[in-house]
Amino acid sequence: MKNIILIDRDQPAYKGNLHLHTTWSDGRLPAADVVEAFKAKGYHFISISDHDVYARTDEFDTADFITLPGTERGELNPVPDKNPGYHFGVLDDPTVEPELPRYGHLEQFPTPVPWVGEASPQLLIDELRAHGNLVVFNHPEWHLTRFDDMVKYDGFFAVEIYNHSTEWSAASSYGAAYWDHALQNGKRVFGIASDDSHTHEPDWKIPEYGGGWVRVQAEALTQTGLIRSLKAGRFYSSSGPEVRDLRVEDGELKIACSPCKFIMFKAFPQRGPFIGNFASGKPLTEASMVIEPDMTYIRVECVDFEGNVAWTNPVFVADLLD
Ligand SMILES: [Zn+2]
Ligand SMILES: [Zn+2]
Question: Where is the Polymerase/histidinol phosphatase N-terminal domain (predicted)?
């Protein structure tokens, strides 16, 4: 079995939020203020993902903070006015040569997107990709999307598995079951935690932003560096804990994390092991498991004492076999 390093304790990891809103759609603060709000929280990058308007904002980029061009496309709804419809996170991918022109700054998209039957979400995903974008299946739990959609539709590179705004406002934020459904049906997709923040009010006792993020290991803090790593799964998602190291070594998957109450190896189809601190009561900061050749994927969740979670991306066991 091959040895690989998924998260390297000796390499830099950049913190970012891939989903938020400004006054370009229904957010409360202008983009420049939102940039300052995230800088003040120690973030290295954000994507300004306003509803149905593209943001391409090099002017905010500095040596230690960048913005990734993108948008959130939506208003694609089989039942008008009865549910919020499909929303897709959209990130400009500079590593591909698109068939159609890239979207420009403040380019507006017509809404609603007409529903033309079950193929409608696929048509929208394909259109976004043709213009040189990565696509994220946003907040499936909040939308109450059908599990089957994870299998039926293709071309999204990630599922939004934690959306802080819908946890903060409606306790409906965890999409990891959708992610597992995709993975169990052979999809190679990653999990993304984000804020989906709209107000960015710094004084609220229960913050509406800074609650869900990704940590990306990249060679440099550039758009190309971050997107290349996102596409390769060289990142983890979190609402609190840190993943400090994740590697396959001598047939074992080994993780190191900030102090946690649980470290759970979600190995499919074997399910575990799930490790808790019941006996010692002490924080867990590392764990390992033996990888079996008949496992298809293994992902790890670390849960801290407040119930916050760090989610690693999956290790695909077939990739490890010689
Ligand atoms: Zn949305
Ligand atoms: Zn949103």
Answer: 16-77
